[in-house]
Design goal:
DUF58 domain-containing protein, 11 helices, DUF58, six-stranded mixed sheet, about 500 residues, alpha+beta, about 25% helix
């Protein structure tokens, strides 16, 4: 995860009125009104007391009381005039470290204030605007800043919710020594903190049903069937003369060679079901947030293993977009690719769609390799669509999140929900189509489920990976190509096939 800092610099903010602002009558009146509106509660109280004392002195004929009233009125007005004519120029800088953090982690915001004017400042109150989900609004009091001097302060922010949060603009408040008047100036610049999903390191296992372009071996893709690609090309210096294709040479009148077989890069597509009706609940511990975090973990893991990956949602939208060949897992590109995918997952939300058909149509575009899907509730029709997504002979792994398990019911023991019987049948439907299916229960960690998806199980299985569960003991299946043993409701274990899912690279 990138952890570098980010700097945002605002233009110098001038305190008081510049000469240009006092040039016109209307602008000058506006500046005076703005200064008077900066009177604090203390300043307004002094002004009201002075007016009252002056009125009473006039009515009662008390000259001493009149002098007290005039003093009370003059003090806040003098403070306003002095503060209004003050010409401080202050530059503010903000730096985020890091600018991209996983949910639940802290980021530190560094603020620097530079006095670029020739005069020392008075008492400054520094305040940065932050969304409430990041914590309380930070406030700092800066004592006198000498000419050319600077002050550095910092604060921490933290959010359990994904998203992009604006920080700023930075506000500076200038006040007089008596606390009668307070003027506020804001900088125009702001920065953005990106809170991405939490990711977990996954074990290098081999999920069931190894497909073309996927696995530990150096698999090759040929343009035509056979050992060599028979489409010839012109001879280039350094080509092996043993690959000269004499028939094409005679036809074209120049030396032609057979093309070398081309290596095929291992590919992986991660499908994220974002349908609003497929998940129940909200918040950082909801089923949807688990699915988003799981998709982020798989994408990062596959990129680290050297795969070419893409992210696909139920709406058919993919990252990279249509026509893209996926993000490469090359060492020099992996970090940037992970950052782009995490930025996208930071803002992904529920879709209004109720159908998985757009995702099915996108998968028919020919992006082969491993398919890892994070699915919510499926009815019979959507389960049928999902079952057809698995390419023939390809690898498909599904993590099913049943809302019945993630939503506590009033009659559930200990406040926990019970799995629905329909979810078991949907899982069986996917397995019969060749999927490796893992049921996800609340509180389970993805690394253990990822290992479960890649290993063959022969013992009892419970939804969510336990040894037993609400369905009772069930016989496992060796994989999509092996004999199936089912439980009383048709639920079966998620197991590996004869060749298995690989965390390796081609």
């Amino acid at each position: 995860m990138p952890s570098g800092g980010r700097t945002g610099t605002a233009d110098p903010a001038a305190y008081g009125a510049a000469s240009g602002e006092r040039g016109g009558e209307g602008r000058g009146d506006g500046g005076v009104r703005a200064a008077l509106s900066g009177l604090t509660t203390r300043g307004r109280a002094f002004l009201a007391a002075g007016v009252a004392a002056t009125a009473c002195a006039y009515v009662l004929g008390q000259p001493d009381l009149l002098r007290v009233g005039l003093l009370l009125m003059a003090l806040p007005l003098v403070c306003v005039a002095v503060l209004y004519r003050t010409r401080y120029q202050v530059a503010g800088t903000r730096r985020l470290s890091p600018a991209r953090v996983p949910a639940g982690a802290e980021a530190r915001v560094h603020l620097r204030v530079d006095n670029v004017s020739r005069l020392p400042t008075g008492l400054l109150m520094l305040q940065d605007r932050v969304p409430y989900v990041l914590g309380p609004r930070p406030r700092f009091v800066l004592d006198r800043v000498e000419s050319g001097g600077r002050r550095d302060v910092s604060y921490r922010v933290r959010s359990d919710l994904r998203g992009r949060y604006p920080l700023g603009p930075l506000q500076l408040r200038l006040t007089d020594p008596f606390g009668m008047c307070e003027l506020t100036r804001s900088f125009s610049a702001f920065d953005t903190l990106t809170v991405v999903p939490r990711t977990e390191p996954l074990p290098p296992v081999r999920p069931a049903g190894e497909s073309a372009g996927f696995g530990d071996g150096r698999q090759r893709s040929l343009a035509l069937a056979g050992e060599d690609d028979m489409i010839p090309r012109g001879y280039r210096y350094g080509d092996d003369l043993r690959r000269v294709h004499w028939r094409s040479t005679a036809r074209h009148g120049e030396l032609m060679v057979r093309r070398e077989e081309q290596p095929r890069r291992a590919r992986c597509t991660v499908l994220l079901d974002t349908r609003a009706g497929a998940y129940a609940g909200a918040g950082p511990d909801s089923a949807f947030e688990w699915a988003v975090s799981g998709a982020a973990s798989v994408l990062a893991h596959m990129l680290e293993r050297g795969f070419t990956v893409r992210l696909l949602t139920d709406t058919g939208a993919s990252v990279p977009g249509d026509g893209g060949d996926g993000f490469s897992g090359a060492a020099q590109e992996s970090a940037d690719s992970v950052g782009l995918l995490m930025d996208m997952l930071a803002v992904v939300g529920h879709s209004r769609d109720t159908d998985l058909s757009p995702a099915y149509d996108a998968l028919r575009g020919g992006f082969e390799g491993l398919l890892v899907a994070f699915l919510g509730d499926l009815d019979e029709e959507q389960a049928s669509v999902a079952a057809r997504m698995r390419a023939r002979g390809g690898t498909a792994v599904a993590f099913l999140l049943d809302s019945g398990e993630w939503t506590p019911g009033p009659g559930s023991p200990g406040g926990t929900a019970a799995p629905t019987r329909d979810a078991g049948w949907r899982a069986r439907q996917l397995r019969e189509a060749g999927w490796s299916v893992v049921r996800v229960a609340p509180g389970q960690a993805l690394p253990g489920l990822w290992r479960q998806a890649g290993e063959a199980h022969t013992g009892p299985y419970a939804p969510g990976g336990g040894a037993s569960g609400p369905y009772g003991p069930e016989g496992g299946v060796p994989g999509p190509h092996g004999p199936a043993g089912g439980g009383p409701d048709g639920e079966r274990a998620a197991t590996g096939g004869p060749t298995g899912l690989s965390g390796g690279r081609s």
